[in-house]
Amino acid sequence: MTAKIELIGVKKRFGAKVVLDGVDLKIEKQSSTVIIGGSGTGKSVTIKCILGILTPDEGTILIDGQDVTRLRGAVRDPLMKKFGMLFQGAALFDSLPVWENVAFGLIQGHGMARAKAKDVAIEKLAKVGLGSDVAYLSPSELSGGMQKRVGLARAIAADPEIIFFDEPTTGLDPIMADIINDLVISTVKNVGATALSITHDMVSARKISDHIAMLYQGKIIWQGPTGEIDRSGNPYVEQFIHGKAEGPIKMAVKA
Fold this sequence. Notes:
The chain is an alpha/beta fold. Helix content is 33%, strand content 24%.
């Protein structure tokens, strides 16, 4: 079976700093994969390479078996319509009401009429547990958890085939984080999408994923079914998932 997303030997550097040093990762259709790793390990750069925001220096990125590594401009537009994304911090437009935030891609990217896009936005808000009254509020009137829900509604507005989740629970209290985790699971299942998430929150990673991959020093050092991560036998993985200061991963601490 052709993987939904496949990265083969992907490398990316910025000047002398090597961020990705040969990433190999295969994500099956309608599965949920989480990339874990510390801050600055290249998780966001990996997603940006898949999205085409960054171009890898070496390697290949396949979507549905098609090499999309260096697609640009109008040729890339059909591919971009397959994607939805929940940004870290929700990244809502302060100047637009909630419904226009949710409908932004439908209007700007898909050319949908505003009236129809508004109806779709209200429908998607309902799927993440927000009533139609929220549609007319401004983002500044929402709590952090509600903003995350609006961001999720926007991510699924066009029924994407692939959804990216960038630190979906960052900045949320444990209860709201668990609510967002449940919403991620249910929306991915309802849309029938393939999900790729990045996080350092192991509670979230375990809950929302079928598979986990750990990125360290530019490479995937372990990947497998979520249920097997506690038996990885990898000392780097063991240190990270248990949050231990002692271990092979050394953190620079300034005095």
